[in-house]
Each structure stands twice: as C-alpha cells, then as structure tokens.
Amino acid sequence: MKTQSFLTSFLLALIMLSCNSVEFTEEFKAETSGKYLYNADDVIEVYYKGNDLYLKWREGEMKSVTTGDNEFFVADMYKKLHFVENSSSKEKYLSVIQEENTDSITYDYLKVADDYKTPSTYLKEANYEKALEGFLKIKEKDSTSEFIQQYKFNRIGYRFLRDKKHEDAVAIFKMNTILHPNSPNVYDSLGDGYLATGDSLNAYNNYLKSYDLNSRNKRAKEFIEIYEAK
Asked: Where are the TPR repeats (predicted)?
C-alpha cells in the first residue's frame, strides 16, 4: 500500500510539473461547459473559473490539472480526460484517455442539455411522474440495474412514512409496483402506505395482491381476513 501511495504521489507530481500553461478561449469554454452523462442516473458538470477547469461530480467539486490544449487530469477520479465529438452523430463527449493506447478515442460521457435531470433528481424534487419515466427507460436497457432496485425505493418510501409524509410514501411505493410488478413485497409496502393515509380499501387491494403472489405473507393475510370480516 505504501508503494502504491508513493507511486500515485510521484505520478501526480510529474503531471503538475509537466502541465502546460494553456489559455482556454471563450469559445472553447462555451462549447465544453455543461453536463455529461456519467451513467444512467449520474452526471458530471463541467465549468470554468477564470482559466481553471472544474468538474462537479457526486456533490464534490474537483479542480483539474491541465496537461495540454485539450487534455486534463482529475486526481479525484484518477483519470485523464479530453473533449471529443463523434464525427457521425455530431454528439459531444467527455472522453477518457486510455493509458495503454493514448491515440484511441472512446465515447464515454455524453454531453446532455443544460436542463437535463436524472431520474433521481426528479425524485428529490417530488416530480414522481418524470422520475418514473426516467427509471422505466433505465429498466428498458437493463432490467437488473442498481438504479431501479426495489429495496432502494422501499427505503425511501418508509422514510417518508416515518416523517409522516404519507402521500409521498404512496407515490414512491406506487412507482415500485410499476417497476417491479411481480414482487409481493412492493404491494405489501404500498398497502402500508395506503393504510397510513387511512385508505383501507386500497390497502386491502394491495395486501391482497401481495398475498396472491406470496401466500406466506401472514401479516397481509391477517389484514385481509379482518377487512373481509367487516
């Protein structure tokens, strides 16, 4: 570990010593500033402070080290990057410079519109319709994506329940049933959400759905029996 740490520090020192004094033009800044899609639910924001290039990623601000006219190193990501354009699609990308083959061009992080929002951003803004739309697109491409795991939404929903934000909890649990329609757990959670709002009919309907998918759900069975006995 000490050797690796020493090599990393040595490499960073070499980069700092070899970096060029590059003056970015205003045109270059305007063309490259903006948001780049790191993955299906995460963006990198590129911006400038004077002649310094910064990246904002996962709520952290990172100042880059310029190593060429269109090359810079980001220590926090431990990546050397540059801006490229796909000659066919004309789409712009933030591209990783490969250590093994520096001449190869890869299209890693697509430049998106300045007003682009990830599904999780919409979720935080309580725009559940837009959030669901985005998560469904993720599911179309990868049904096992970590960004649509049912337990993630369940945790959010129950946090809303604990905070007495019952309508928000129901919205999250509903979203989960659409994303995972064959899971008994998501209907059980939606039943809990409706029960917290006082909507016993919808609670019953969802507990029933959960029980149909999993007859070992004793709690759902108890509620169903009590409700039907009324």
From this structure: 184-217
Do the beta carbons of residue 34 and residue 45 sit within 8 Å? yes
Residue of 229, 212, 135 whose CA lies nearest to 176: 135
CATH annotation of 2-112: 2.40.128
pTM as predicted: 0.84
Using one digit for the tens of pLDDT, what is the confidence trace for 146-174? Answer: 999 999 999 999 999 999 999 999 999 99
Taking residue 23's Cβ as centre, other Cβ atoms within 10 Å add up to 9
Per CATH, domain 149-229 is 1.25.40.10: yes
pLDDT tens readout for residues 169-215: 999 999 999 999 999 999 999 999 999 999 999 999 999 999 999 99
Q: Where are the domains of the chain?
A: 2-112, 149-229
4, HSE (Cβ side, Cα atoms, 13 Å): 1
